[in-house]
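Module 6 notes. Inverse folding takes a fixed backbone as the condition and produces residue identities as the prediction. Think of it as a translation problem where the source language is geometry and the target language is the twenty amino acids. Below is one complete input and output pair. Work through it position by position during the lab.
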């Protein structure tokens, strides 16, 4: 029997477009003998639109058509909840309202199996401050940082700039606590840039983190599984831009990925262990991409985990698994299996 697979994509998020590319790639790779695909598109305004079940190989046009017209009549979420449910959901959303546990909470309430991380891991992984606090708890090395909320900035910006300069040195990285894909992140080389960077980041979030900027290689590992996760080989990203910003991630073809990354065996083992511990401390399930900085003298610092990493066939996560022996369509199957497994364990 074919599984009815609800593919949820789009989303009320700054990473909407990224999600569309992922949905396009996943639909093209799915074996339609195994799955009946039910496209569920969330507009930028947050409306849920249900498409007709997909019956042939899906083209880019189909996805775009669905995106534009939402197919026939718009179904708002209330309608979605009343309609017949898929057997399992594959959420292909990034950023707020998708990767952050909110949509996962909805699937929990509906009691539908869904792929990937649960509510807790998703929301903890989306908040860079909470994530770092948990990493510290697990004894994982990371860069120094400070954090504050918008109100504190409005009350005394100078004091916060002082605090940053006392604890950290330039360059610093300023980030909204709750985004991904480098949206709202900037590097500051002096106090003036720091102030501008904070003001920019505050447009995206009420919580800001300022990190010590470091010179390091960026190396990533993919984790797959539930209670007994496996860790992939390592991959390195070499952005041509000054840092791995939004453009470098999604528009610029010149960012180089090298898989497996050239690292020594002890460093690889150390990173694997850190990736595993990061997965555990956030209570992850399904998948995670763990991102590290590796300094010149081979010190490994964890940067972040992404609970719904980029998932097109040319994204790091699928490529890491491909190099580790798991092809893209098989990886999707595996994630869906893991969704059922996790659901069964909860009952
Ligand atoms: P996102 O969740 O948006 O991917 P990251 O924390 O990974 O945010 O930051 C995006 C990119 O910015 C990183 O891939 C890296 O290139 C650069 N970067 C972030 N933090 C630092 C830092 N502390 N030092 C040096 N580079 C950094
Ligand atoms: Mg991220
Ligand atoms: Mg990142």
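Target side of the pair, the amino acids:
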């Amino acid at each position: 029997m074919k599984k009815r697979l609800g593919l949820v994509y789009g989303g009320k998020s700054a990473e909407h477009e990224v999600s569309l590319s992922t949905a396009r790639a996943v639909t093209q790779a799915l074996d339609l003998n195994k799955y009946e695909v039910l496209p569920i598109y969330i507009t930028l305004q947050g409306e849920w639109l249900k498409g007709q079940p997909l019956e042939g190989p899906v083209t880019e046009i189909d996805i775009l058509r669905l995106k534009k017209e939402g197919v026939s009549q718009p179904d708002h979420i209330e309608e979605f909840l009343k309609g017949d449910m898929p057997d399992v959901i594959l959420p292909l959303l990034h950023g707020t309202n998708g990767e952050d546990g909110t949509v996962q909470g909805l699937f929990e309430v509906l009691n539908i199996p869904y792929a990937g991380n649960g509510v807790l891991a998703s929301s903890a992984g989306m908040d860079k401050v909470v994530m770092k606090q948990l990493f510290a708890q697990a004894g994982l090395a990371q860069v120094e940082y400070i954090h504050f909320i918008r109100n504190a900035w409005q009350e005394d910006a100078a004091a916060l700039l002082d605090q940053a300069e006392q604890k950290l040195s330039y360059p610093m990285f300023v980030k909204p606590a709750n985004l991904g894909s480098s949206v709202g992140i900037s590097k500051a080389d002096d106090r003036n840039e720091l102030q501008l960077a904070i003001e920019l980041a505050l447009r995206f979030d009420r919580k800001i983190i300022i990190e010590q900027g470091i010179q390091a290689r960026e190396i990533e590992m993919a984790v797959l599984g539930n209670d007994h996760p496996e860790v992939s080989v390592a991959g390195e990203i070499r952005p041509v831009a000054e840092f791995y910003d939004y453009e470098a991630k999604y528009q610029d073809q010149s960012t180089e990925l090298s898989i497996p990354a050239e690292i020594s065996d002890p460093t690889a083992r150390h990173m694997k262990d850190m990736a595993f511990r990061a997965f555990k401390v956030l209570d992850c399930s399904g998948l995670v991409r763990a991102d590290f900085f590796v300094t010149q003298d081979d010190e490994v610092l964890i940067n972040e985990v992404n609970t719904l990493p980029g998932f097109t066939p040319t994204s790091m996560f699928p490529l890491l698994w491909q190099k580790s022996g798991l092809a893209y369509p098989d990886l999707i199957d595996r994630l869906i299996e893991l969704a059922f497994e996790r659901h069964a364990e909860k009952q």
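Reference fact for the lab report: The mean pLDDT is 89.
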